[in-house]
Amino acid sequence: MGSEMCIRDRLILVEVKMKLDRKFVSKYYEHVEDFPDLDIDLSKTILLIVDYQNEFCLTDFGEAKEFKEDGLWDSWKPYFDKMHQVALPNTEKVLNYFRDNDLLVSYGLIACQREDGRDRSPVQKSDGWNNMLMPVNSYAAQVVDPLKPIDDEIVVYKTTDSVTTGTNYLHLLDNMDIETVVVCGMVTDQCVASTVRGLADAGYNVITVHDACIAASEELHEAELKIMNVIYTYVLSTEDTLKLLDESK
User: Fold this and answer.
1) Which of 82, 152, 158, 242 is deepest in the core (most CB within 10 A)?
2) Quick check: helix, strand or coil at residue 138?
3) Is this model's pTM higher than 0.85 or not?
4) Which among 213, 207, 212, 193 has a CA at the least distance from the CA of 245?
5) How many angstroms separate the CA atoms of 196 and 200, rounded?
6) Contact (Cβ atoms closer than 8 angstroms) between residue 144 and residue 52
7) Model confidence over 215-245: pLDDT tens digits?
8) Radius of gyration (C-alpha) of the chain in whole angstroms
């Protein structure tokens, strides 16, 4: 009852522009009929692109090369196919919209300052999926070509999953009087999710562009989006995100 009252209060305060995709509505909100999108101020909105870097995106380098060498490529190929056919092109669409409309753009990237990686957080020194050594000037750490930063775009480097805990990103947002952050990136259930939660806990409105994000499987991708939706972020498609931005001019 308390959560439904909270939603009703928000419905009064926020302008209704379109309906959220119920595919990403969790048990917590399954009985709520209408969800509003945010009524945003574009001058106080920034795009955040998370971890679309050579190490993770290229199919002949980094993780993909290791998967091929280890005989795991058949298992991971659908992930890379979706990345290059859906998530990366949609992220590029959102990025181009921000650039074409002279809106703020930022990047949160995995990279350590020292060549030996001594400055990495414990999670990036541990065994397993998150164990990575990517010095900031290395080829592996660079943003994949279609999304490369240009002059006057903000880039912060992290050795954590979350952009908000591993950098001064929140301080920069505060300096720029930002209210809303539009998030695209990888992977949905790790770096994207921890970043979204950090932004929400810090008081920012967050839009997560679901088809401009990717996880290792659709199950993980959809589960994480359902968990975060409404509570921490508004989960929107690329099309609906661009429509919302257009209607906010």
Assistant:
1) 158
2) coil
3) yes
4) 207
5) 6
6) yes
7) 999 999 999 999 999 999 999 999 999 999 9
8) 18
